[in-house]
Amino acid sequence: MSTLAFDGRVREVPGVAGYRVAAHAELGSTNSAALAAAGEGDPGNLWIVAGRQTSGRGRRARPWVSEPGNLYASLLTIDPVPPARIGQFPLVAALALADAVDTMTGSYGLIRLKWPNDLLVDGAKISGILLEATMLADGRRAVVCGFGLNLSHHPELPDYKAANLAGLGFPVGPERAFEALAASVAQHMARWREAPFSQTLDDWRRRAVGIGAPIRVRLEDRELNGIFSGLDPDGRLVLETGDTRQTIAAGDVFFDGAALGTSAPGQPAG
């Protein structure tokens, strides 16, 4: 039976114990549908997949282009880890997606990671990851991680370079992409819960771009310039500005072309 039947029915994910999936031909937003399922009492470990989104969104409510042919999938979890560790989730998700892309393309090491959770190929962004959380009536926390992966097309936007796997020479369909993602996420979620987070950080750093390079960090109320000196033990960005060091939990990071391994000066990273 097909992993993604696109009929809205909830099924077990083949080969991934403890996870279920409901695939829809079209949804407004897979994240919104996953949050709605949590509000209706779903126990979690539920994937919501859409062939197309009509109201997809990225960080800070930016629109996310969601035409057919790409992968749009959101995972609902309930209290995946203690609240103090939720901030580590973006790095776990990015590493899981990077490993999944290696698997689905058979090209290991293709992906580089830009803090906290952007996937790059030759400096071009190929994905988006959006985490959202809400408290349920019984006091539990529902956390949804949405993945958008450019398989067959990508947006042409003025503020950053984007690409898709087919255009890079790796034709992959949504079903194959979801199978690889579901297996990889299950593996990384288990390690996140059971092993020291330092293992995830070490793997993330091996794929990282820009460590040691000058960066610009755009926060909600200001921008900061400094050196990306590394990550703290919880995966927050450490920025050196003059004689001071500060940790940043969330923000938009921009590198120059050299830091990304590209020749485009001033190219923002995402």
UniProtKB/TrEMBL annotation:
InterPro entries: aa-tRNA-synth_II/BPL/LPL, Biotin_CoA_COase_ligase, BPL_C, BPL_LPL_catalytic, Transcriptional_repressor_C
Reaction catalysed by this enzyme: biotin + L-lysyl-[protein] + ATP = N(6)-biotinyl-L-lysyl-[protein] + AMP + diphosphate + H(+)
Enzyme Commission identifier(s): 6.3.4.15
KW Disulfide bond (keyword) present: no
Top-rank lineage group of the source organism: Bacteria
Pfam family, one: BPL_LplA_LipB
Domain BPL/LPL catalytic: 20-197
UniProt GO MF annotations: ATP binding; biotin--[biotin carboxyl-carrier protein] ligase activity
Gene Ontology CC entries for this record: cytoplasm
SUPFAM superfamilies, per database record: C-terminal domain of transcriptional repressors (SSF50037), Class II aaRS and biotin synthetases (SSF55681)
Gene3D superfamilies: 2.30.30.100, Bira Bifunctional Protein, Domain 2
Keyword entries, A-Z: ATP-binding, Biotin, Ligase, Nucleotide-binding
Protein name: biotin--[biotin carboxyl-carrier protein] ligase
Source species of the chain: Stappia indica
Higher taxonomy: Bacteria, Pseudomonadati, Pseudomonadota, Alphaproteobacteria, Hyphomicrobiales
